[in-house]
Structures are given as C-alpha cells and as structure tokens.
Amino acid sequence: FIRIYLKPQGEKADMDEPLVLKKEATVxxxxxxxxxxxxxxxxxxxxxxxxxxxPNQKVGKSHELVDEDIVSIITx
Length: 76
Prior knowledge:
The structure is a single chain. This protein is an alpha+beta fold. The chain has one domain: Beta-grasp domain (Ubiquitin-like (UB roll)), CATH 3.10.20.30. It is built from two helices and five strands. The protein has a five-stranded mixed beta sheet with strand order 2-1-5-3-4. Strand 3 (42-48) and strand 4 form a beta hairpin. The longest helix is centred in the middle third of the chain and has 8 residues, at 27-34.
C-alpha cells in the first residue's frame, strides 16, 4: 500500500491524514476513490514527491503515484 497526501488548491497539504491506496495506483485511481466528480471534472493534477520529476509537476490521470506523494487535483 501507499500513502497519498491531499493538497486542496491554494491550501497546505493535509499531512495528518493520508489516503491509503494500492501500490501502482494512478491519479485516476485516486480520483475514483475520492468521488466520481473528481474524475468527471478532472483537468490535471499537481504532484510533489518521489514520483514527480520536479516539485509541482503537472500530470494527467495515468500518472503512477508512489508512497508519500502529495497531490492537488485541479477540476473545471
């Protein structure tokens, strides 16, 4: 399993309560786990952590997450 920390847009990441997902989970899996609206209205996500090439990397739904990534989901 991996721990993912959520960062609401314009706020600090919630480092106290991670979301636990299966290994090799993608941003799409994260969206499905939260609420179907995140998937339906998904524009992109911002990632901080080991899976990112650089902090605040813009990624799509297929991006694979790793333990302790911080994710901000941007919707329209």
